Amino acid sequence: MAPPIGRLAAAPSDYVPPELPPLEPLRRTLRAVSGKWKLEILCTLIHGPRRFTEIRRAIPGVTHHMLAAQLREMEADGLLARHAYDEMPPRVEYELTAAARDLKPVAEALRIWGETHGGARAD
């Protein structure tokens, strides 16, 4: 009989490590939200659609060029929908897709972790 998974057996050579969850879904998620400004953009748009200038004002320090690049990447990754309105002056709004709205609890958990542990630095 094989030893239980994740438990030590009679001999160390009989140890069977626990089955690890697949990492590829985590890698895809991290690729989609990694970037200096993407989580801040996501948190800004959780409250509803915003125009480019509103997003830029809500995120201190982001440059026009960097914000535009991050918005394009997020749109390509299916996290944002870009709506251009045919009016003068031109108006463009960005809003989260359903997939991005599913990240709200993740962003909230990261915020809470930052409040609790963000000041501590591991040496």
Automatic annotation (TrEMBL):
It holds the Pfam family HxlR. InterPro entries: HTH_HxlR (IPR002577), WH-like_DNA-bd_sf (IPR036388), WH_DNA-bd_sf (IPR036390). Gene3D superfamilies: Winged helix-like DNA-binding domain superfamily/Winged helix DNA-binding domain. Residues 24-122 form the HTH hxlR-type domain. Keywords: DNA-binding, Transcription, Transcription regulation. GO terms for molecular function: DNA binding. This is HxlR family transcriptional regulator. It comes from Oharaeibacter diazotrophicus.
